[in-house]
Write a structure and sequence with these properties.
The chain is of the alpha/beta class. The chain has one domain (2-227): Alpha-Beta Barrel (TIM Barrel). The chain is 40% helix and 13% strand. The chain is globular, with a radius of gyration of 18 Å. Strands 7-6-5-4-3-2-1-8 form an eight-stranded parallel sheet. The relative contact order is 0.14. It has helices spanning 23-34, 55-69, 84-93, 114-127, 138-141, 147-153, 169-178, 193-198, 213-224, 228-236, 252-260, 277-286; strands at residues 6-10, 40-43, 75-78, 101-105, 132-136, 159-164, 184-187, 203-206. One of its GO terms (cellular component) is cytosol.
Length: 292
């Protein structure tokens, strides 16, 4: 499980002006991140606009990513949803050869009980031919995966960790305190990466690192080495830019930042809208000095 310590990047899905997938840009994005020291890549996560890509596009994105990455770093693939049976069908029909783990977001909108969440993830882990990472993001799903439920799920042989984006440090510490040996606790909050590593977590699956992979990877490595003075300074360097990434919806902000770097265009699919002129100007100003 050491493969997933460090910086993982929740890759955006680049689009062309007609909103078709831009595979040339996707290749540039993958190479940009790999050449700047990230530890693994996540394809078709929620930052990849997985809710608006078609089943055929998901298959093509995965196949393309496997070929482009060519085993240089671990590959995590996002399969999640709020209809358990549909998620199981997606797993069954996906070509997961060459995929190192699934990242599966907790069911959204339904607001299931903790028992429902437990049963959902147990079914997913039972069905998956590769290890599963839980993903708790209550700000988007409308429900929290409690520490007790996470620790209960951690007993499953095919569940290897959690991306924890609750922002609740006490909850994260409770998981770290009582987790089985080897169970990964990964931050899903870019601006809490260093504090979360300081209490025993294993790294980050990041949005910001799409655009700032070298600086973000360096920060995470320093924190994992216990150099919190330098890591903290790098963490604070993202203070101005980070909230702009989400102000008009994710991945609107980071796609605009990537456009400024010449990696991909900033197109997003409805119901997301392109970054407003005001947001564009503020991202440009905040990104000054954050080059790799």
């Amino acid at each position: 499980m050491q493969s997933f310590r460090g910086t993982g990047v929740a890759l955006v899905t680049p689009f062309q002006a007609d909103h078709s997938v831009d595979y040339d840009a996707f290749a540039r994005l993958i190479e940009y991140n790999l050449s700047n020291g990230v530890d693994y890549l996540v394809v078709n996560g929620t930052t990849g606009e997985s809710v608006t890509t078609t089943p055929e596009e998901k298959k093509q994105l995965l196949a393309f990513a496997k070929k482009q990455i060519a085993g240089r770093v671990p590959l995590v693939y996002g399969i999640g949803g709020n209809n358990t049976q549909a998620v199981l069908e997606l797993i069954k029909n996906a070509d997961l050869a060459g995929v190192d783990a699934l990242l599966s977001v907790s069911p959204y909108y339904n607001k299931p009980s903790q028992e429902g969440i437990y049963l959902h993830y147990t079914a997913v882990a039972d069905a998956s031919p590769v290890p599963v990472l839980l993903y708790n993001v209550p700000g988007r799903t409308g429900s929290n995966v409690s520490a007790a439920t996470t620790l209960r799920l951690a007993q499953h042989a095919n569940i290897i960790g959690i991306k924890e984006a609750s922002g609740n440090m006490e909850q994260c510490m409770a998981i770290v305190q009582d987790k089985p040996e080897g169970f990964l606790v990964i931050s899903g909050e870019d601006m809490l990466t260093v504090p979360m590593i300081s209490v025993g977590m294993d790294g980050i699956i990041s949005v910001l690192a799409n655009a700032f992979p070298a600086r973000f990877s360096r920060m995470t490595k320093l924190a994992l080495q216990g150099n919190f003075s330098e890591a903290g300074a790098l963490q604070r360097s993202f203070l101005s830019v980070n909230p702009l990434m989400y102000e008009e919806g994710n991945p609107v902000g980071v796609k605009f930042a990537l456009e400024q770097l010449g990696i991909c265009q900033a197109y997003v699919r409805l119901p997301l809208a392109p970054a407003s002129d005001s947001l564009q100007q503020r991202i440009k100003a905040a990104a000054v000095g954050l080059d790799n």
